[in-house]
Design goal:
By secondary structure, this protein is α/β, with parallel strands linked by helices. The protein is 55% helix and 15% strand. Strand 4 and strand 5 form a beta hairpin.
Amino acid sequence: MNTQQQLQKKERCLRSSVKNITERMFSMFPVFVILLFMFNNPHAQTQTQIKIGVLANMGTEEALSRWNSTAQYLTAEIPQHSFTILPLGYDSLQKVVESAEVNFVITNPSDYVELESAYGTTRIATLKMQFHGNPLKMYGGVIFTRAERNDITDLSHLEGKKFMAVEKGSLGGWQSAWREFNDKGIDPFNDFAGLEFTGFPHDLVVYGVRDGKADVGTVRTGVLESMAAEGKINLSDFRILNQQVREDFPQLLSTRLYPEWAFAKTKHTPDELAEQVIIALLKLSYESEPARSAAIEGWTVPLDYMAVHELMMELRIGHYKDFGKLTLEGALKKYWYLIALWIIVIILSAFIIIYMKKTNIKLYHAKTEIEKERNSLEVRVTERTHELQKGIDELRRWHNVTLDREDRVIELKKEVNELLKQLGKENKYHSDLPAAGRH
């Protein structure tokens, strides 16, 4: 009996051990599968994570829906890397670029220019949209009102009106229109009766103007046509303000054109990887899954974004908010050499002024001494002249006296001569008389 009980106990222990082993095997099964996948995938162990930051201006889900296919496509084309999409807002996108948390970004033109100026981000491709079979690399804004508003036919009629836009950071949905206002001397923040930003999508602005919540609104090009094609609105219900007609641009337009969204690499991303991404992006066709998911034509070589820089400079927004303003720190950084030169000039001028002042003082004292000497000399000369004059006068007096004496002498001489002559005559007369004894 004891032996049988021992056998039963051993059997129970054995069954328990088998059960535990089986449970452990089942629990480790996912690990085995993962290990098997890794050994069968030659790139699994060497893949590096590459993050693409996307401006999610219409929400996280929409951004993932649009761009996940692009990330999967790049992973397939460049298998040593695994690409993932990171949807971000305006502020968040700048923070992750600054902290080097993303390798690439997909963002709108004004945001790209901000990242380029502040963090050295470099565009490697420009987005291409599609409209009625035409690839579009540029876009702008449309300013519109209801067709029945006969009091609003020009931008000059917007003063005192309610205006609706998408978002302050939206180039097509606000900034492009703002630049046109600025050119015409219109200050939307002070001249409008109201300025409302609805947020994305652009449709909210269109509905707001249609329903009378605003007198005028602006959206990016293509929005009105898309909504009309979807049966959401009738284009005839709206009037386009400041309409621009261009042969190279088929959509309704009220502003200047700007390059489309940019695909850019961050500063720390290797150029070799960026080159591989460029090649892969340029291969995308309109029929490809990534293009269809993103609702784009594809990608093209990077365009010139100087027009966006000019817009931001004129509006003084983003990195150019202090454009034209000179702060003390900015002046020191920008004009330090001129400031140093001016300091040197001022110091030299001070030395020259001090030297000249001292010299003038010396000259003044010397002049004073000379004046004293001159005055003293003049006194002495005057005295000497007076003395000389007295001498001359005395000489003249003695001269006159002498002349008078000479004249007296001459007169006396004449008188003496006359007397002598008279005496001579008398002597002769007496000598001619006969002597009395001789008669």
